[in-house]
Amino acid sequence: MKKLIFINSHPIQYFAPLYQYLVQQNFDMEVWYCSDESIKGEIDKEFGVKVKWDIPLLSGYKNKFFKNYAFNKGVHQGFFGLFNLGLVPAILKGPKCIFVVHGWKYFSDILSLFTAKIKGHKVALRAEMPYNQEVLKTGVTQNVKIWVLKYLLFKCVDYFLYLGEQNKKYYLFLGISEDRLIKMPYVVDNTRFREAADQLRPQKNSLRNKLNIPLNAFVILFSGKYIQKKRPLDLLKSFKQLDNSNAFLIMMGDGELRNEMESYITEYNVKNILLTGFINQSSVLDYYAVSNIFVMCSGSGETWGLSVNEAMNFDLPLVISDITGCASDLVLEGENGFVFETGNIDDLTSKLAYCINNPSVINFLGKKSGEIINNFSYKEIEIALKKLVGC
Questions:
Q1: Which of 31, 119, 32, 100 is nearest to 388 (CA)?
Q2: Helices 359-372 and 345-357, interaxial angle, to 10°?
C-alpha cells in the first residue's frame, strides 16, 4: 500500500478524528501541518474569541509541523499567511508516495503541488469549490483564475477528490475527465455524534431546563460563526416573521455580527432567542439534543457546511439555503427537509412555518436525515482512499 501524506493548513477538529480512524484501518500515512495556531489557542478572527478545541487534535496518527516563514503568519492572513519553505526538501527527499493537498488557498498549497509533481509523486487535490457558487463569479479575475487552474495548477494533479455533486460538477466544468475523479465526501465522526444522540435523547427535558428553554417549545437551531457568509440575520428576520410564541431559536456561535444581531433583537423586541457565544466540541452535543430542526442559511462561501452532518446524526430535519455546498447531497426535498432560496426571508419563513404547524411530519423528516447521513461516513473516506492508493 502506497504511503499517504496529507498536507493541511493547521490541525482541524473535523479532520483529526478521521486521521485517527484511518490509522486504525492500517493506512500508512502522515499529516503535515503548516501552522499550529489551533493547538496554541489563538484568537479566531471570525468567532472573535480565543479558540482552543477540547478534543485531541494530534493523538493517534503521525504528524509534523513545518516552520512558517510568512511575514504576517496565520490561516486568516490570506494567500501568503502560510509560507512553509521546509516542505520542499521534505517532499523531494522522501520516497514516492501519494500527497493529498487540501485546496490552493495558501502559497504552501501551491508549493506542495508543484514540488510533489516535480519529484514524481502522485498528487490528489481535495478542494471545496461548488459549481453553483463559482458560476456566480464573473470578471477578469475569475477568468484568470479559471485559466490558471486549468492550464497550470491542474496539470500537477493526478486525481481530484470531490466532496459532493456541486464540487464534482465544477471539476467537470473545468474539463477534468471522470476517470480522474474520486468521491471523497465531507464527513464528521458519525459514531461519536450518534452515541451522544442516543445517550442524550432521554435527557432532553433536563437539558432544556439547564439551558432555560421551555419544555414544549419548537426549537430551531443555528450553528456557525456570526459572520456575513453565514447570514445569521436572515434567520433572525425570519424568526421575527414567524411570530410564533411556541418557537424558540438557538443561535449557537459567536462573531463580528453579534452586536448587529443584538441590536435587531432589542429594536424589534424579539423574544425566545438564545445567542450562546462560542461553544466547544464537547458541549455542542447538548444543543443538538434539545432541538427540533436545524437551519443553515449561508450564502456564497459556504462550500459544504459540516454542522449539517452533525445535526443529521441527531435525526434533525433540515432547512438549508440553496447555495450551501451540501444542499444538493444532504437534503432530499420533502423527505428529510427543505431547501429555500438563499436570502429569501419569506421562503425561509414559509418552510419553518410548515414544519412548526405540522409536528407529525418532523419525526419522519428527522428519521430520514439519520438514514441519509449513514452514507457520509468515515467508511466512505476509507473506500475512496483505498481506491486512490490502488491507482
A1: 100
A2: 110
